[in-house]
Design a protein that fits this description.
By secondary structure, this protein is mostly helical. The protein has two domains: 87 residues, no CATH class; 86 residues, no CATH class. The chain has six helices and no strands. The radius of gyration is 38 Å and the shape is elongated.
Amino acid sequence: MSTAPYGVRLLVGVAATAVEETMKLPQTIVTYPMTLVSQMAQLVMKMQQDVADLVNKGDETLESFFPPKDEQPEWATFDEDDGDEPSEPTGERRTEGRFALYSVGEEDAPVNAPVTTPAPAPDAPAVVADIDYTTLTLAQLRARLQSLSVGDLEALLAYEESTKARAPFQTLLANRITRASAK
């Protein structure tokens, strides 16, 4: 415990702090611009939050004096308004446009129906039945292509061209034939 008067101890503490801060000054000067920018950003965000809080409070106050009216226009109709039960999805797959990439064909059963494998046409190559080609989606076919020979791939491409002629399937098979033949 020091016996010096309170004022003297205070002045010595201020002087020691000033010396310490002066020694840190080179480090502080380097980081000062970033500190200033972050403090300004913090101040701006705080102001935006305060303004948003005031707007919300104003909305609540206005709603207490002037209750909101039904905002649904009279010309707008919704399923709930008709009193009818919402219709159930049919479960049919789309086979046109961009959905053709993931579809198998028109002969598919609805999604909810049990999966049955349609019989391949009599002139179908054996590989069609072996990999169950008629039920494969594009992604499923892509996964099975690695295990097929070039002859099987060519047979699948000919079968696809003579039946459904789906461009994504034809492109996939032709590209795989090209890569397999190049090896």
